[in-house]
Design a protein that fits this description.
Blueprint: H1 2-7, H2 17-25, E1 31-33, H3 35-38, H4 44-58, E2 61-65, H5 71-84, H6 89-94, E3 103-105, H7 115-120, E4 131-136, H8 144-147, H9 163-190, E5 207-214, E6 227-230, E7 236-240, E8 247-250, E9 256-258, E10 266-270, H10 272-277, E11 287-289, E12 296-303, H11 331-342, H12 356-362
Parallel strand pairs: 1-2
Antiparallel strand pairs: 2-10, 3-4, 4-5, 5-12, 6-11, 7-10, 7-12, 8-9, 8-11
Helix pairs in contact: 4-9, 5-9
Length: 363
């Protein structure tokens, strides 16, 4: 009980009028300037905490500006990502995902489904049309998890023909990881926790970098999407904005909000890990990508706690008389089943539409 009292630090700061208005109108994402906070301006952390609290209890998505990630790095990473999907089919398949969720992901490899989405929208039955390259935290051959062949904790499959891609994307990933750590106190204060509450859970945080290609599909089926409605499995997600439209976010009224481009901004949203930790207080908002008008690329950075960190509801987030809504498990024990529920690239029959030769070979 004493520990709970020490962790709980009630905020008296109210959300800004601009955030309140954006939530009520639900026409565009709230925009938060994190520059003053990153510069150490007094009061900036508490105001961001109040704003994020209001956003995460209602919409679950916002954009940040003055975040410190050089736009030149983001632009170069987008440039390299576009080149990534132009490599030969032979090289792509050389690096195809398999036991580990790391490497090239062919199109129509996933059906995004979950009970939460089914309850809020409908059960998705169509394969997503996007393709992707997937990366986790960079590890060398001597890493204990690599040696033990821990699933999804292997070595990344960097494309052999694009050395500049690895250089740019690794710098991008480490910059995003640092930003994710810098944002942790905001979420702690948003939950009325000590600013340093999450530090012990993010000593060596995991991340999942998804470079996606949303090609204009000519033959979309009824109810099919480039990326179907889903909620992320992350603690938080960081996504550089692109002027190519396609991303839509579900509003509190269950309408679909077309996300408008904001120059040099990053989209931020909460995923299922923080949803669990907050005992459902912070929502993991459904979102989707519709068939784009022309080529669209995304460099989504999913930020996670340490593998051994508990993702059970935080005691301070369970109100008196409220039920604890989630079980106690480690992040890793949450993560692997989450991916297995969504992706089916190891099922040759599921993949026969885009990889008929594998279905024949295993048939």
């Amino acid at each position: 009980m004493t520990e709970i009292k020490q962790n709980f630090v009630k905020s008296t700061t109210e959300p800004s009028e601009a955030v309140r208005k954006a939530i009520v109108e639900a026409k565009e994402l709230p925009i938060l300037d994190v520059g003053p906070y990153l510069a150490g301006v007094p009061g900036a952390l508490e105001q961001l905490g109040a704003d994020v609290r209001h956003i995460q209890e209602h919409l679950g998505f916002f954009a940040i500006i003055n975040h410190g990630i050089p736009q030149a790095l983001i632009d170069e990473s987008f440039h390299q990502t576009a080149k990534l999907f132009e490599v030969s089919g032979e090289e792509k398949m050389k690096h195809r995902v398999g036991y580990h969720h790391q490497g090239y992901l062919p199109p129509k490899s996933s059906i995004l489904q979950s009970n939460a989405i089914k309850e809020k929208i409908a059960l998705n039955t169509k394969k997503d049309t996007n393709s992707a390259w997937l990366f986790m935290r960079e590890r060398d051959a001597n890493d204990p998890k690599v040696k033990a062949n821990v699933r999804h904790r292997g070595q990344n499959q960097w494309p052999d023909s694009l050395p500049d891609f690895k250089a740019a994307l690794y710098k991008y990933q480490t910059s995003m990881e640092q930003l994710g750590k810098q944002l942790l106190p905001i979420y702690a204060r948003a939950l009325n926790l000590r600013a340093d509450y999450f530090d012990s859970m993010f000593k060596t945080p995991e991340y999942y970098q998804r470079c996606a290609y949303y090609h204009p599909e000519e033959k979309m089926e009824e109810g099919q999407f480039a990326l179907a409605p889903h909620s992320d499995g992350s603690f938080l997600t960081l996504l550089p904005m692109t002027p190519v439209p396609g991303l839509q976010v579900m509003t509190p009224n269950k309408d679909w909000l077309n996300v408008k481009y904001v120059k040099d901004a990053l989209i931020v949203n909460t995923g299922q890990v923080l949803n669990r930790l907050s005992n459902d207080r912070f929502i993991a908002t459904p979102h989707r990508v519709i068939n784009p008008p022309h080529k669209r690329y995304a460099m989504t950075f999913f930020f996670y706690p340490d593998d051994d960190a508990s993702v059970a509801p935080i005691a301070e987030c369970v109100q008196p008389g409220e039920k604890v809504k989630y079980d106690s498990r480690s992040f890793y024990d949450f993560f692997v089943p989450y991916l297995d529920d969504l992706y089916h690239y190891n099922d040759a029959n599921f993949m026969k539409e885009v990889e008929p030769e594998r279905a024949v070979a295993q048939g």
